[in-house]
Amino acid sequence: MKAFVTGGNGFIGSFLAEFLLEKGYEVCCLVRPTSNLQWVKDLPVRFVYGDLYDKDFLIDVVKKQEYVFHLAGKIKARHWDDYYMTNVTGTRNLVEACAEGNSNLKRFVYVSSIAASGPSGKGKLKDEEDADSPVNEYGKTKLLGEDVVRSLGTRMPFVILRPPNVLGPRQEELYSILKILQSRVKLLLGNGDKQLSICFIGDLVRGIEMAATSEHTVGKTYFITDGNTYSWREIADTIAEELGVSPFVIPVPYVLLLIIASLLGFVARLRGEKSFFDASTLKRIRTTYLTYDSSKASRDFGFSARTDMATGIKRTVEWYTRRGLLRTPRGKRRI
Q1: Model pTM?
Q2: Does residue 191 contact residue 254 with C-beta atoms inside 8 Å?
Q3: What residues contact residue 188 under an 8 Å CB cut-off, 6+ apart?
Q4: pLDDT at residue 335 above 50?
């Protein structure tokens, strides 16, 4: 089995490449000459250097592949055009390359995001039949990318997947939170309600492969979650317990946190960057509900999560601790 992965050097993509290799796939990853390959450089994968903007190049690359997993995307950008160029134009080039250059393709897998669907609303699990209402430029361009895939769906078999907040090792934002919590600072995020769905990385990549190889998923869209909903405080408390730093000693009130987030956003803009934690992000965390129903994935291709939250966080903390990126939790020996 031959698989082509875009975004294979990223968080989800690197774990997907590892999982596909374990399943016996021959894996080829599209990377840019400037890509950071720290997570995949030692894997037995074939690297092709290029980008999503040269369709002739893409036609040549995909022509002998059986499965194409499209994960590459622009998550953080300062301008709409930057999001659009990667998430829409790049996706269109790849889809057209597959449609024109590979009539034997078994499945095109577009890994989208819950951002394309938009918030769920308080007390509601949003499903795939609900109206899409993306609220930011990333979500709007991911939805447009989905539209591109669907528009060419008659020319090749495809499936669209929408992961929620994905947790696990290598996830930069989660690592930042781990470091803050290990410093015994209590971030008063969320509002106490169960506001979000999650999925741990091992379950997600297994679900991606299951969807790619199921005969029941062609032309369909799926949320993939662990089947539960959580509050931000519940997740933070579980992390703190695993880190051995509970109870917290320095609670940071929301108003002060808002000031800090605003300053971080301002500094990032001065550097020409986009901060993962700015005032708009903080406000969104406090007021937005991101809960989704993944029962369709269970019905159609038998997906169910194997990793509960406590186990997933434990494995993540252990991963960073082994690499010396976190202090050994109190009362525990370094693994």
Answers
A1: 0.88
A2: no
A3: 251, 252, 253, 254, 257
A4: no
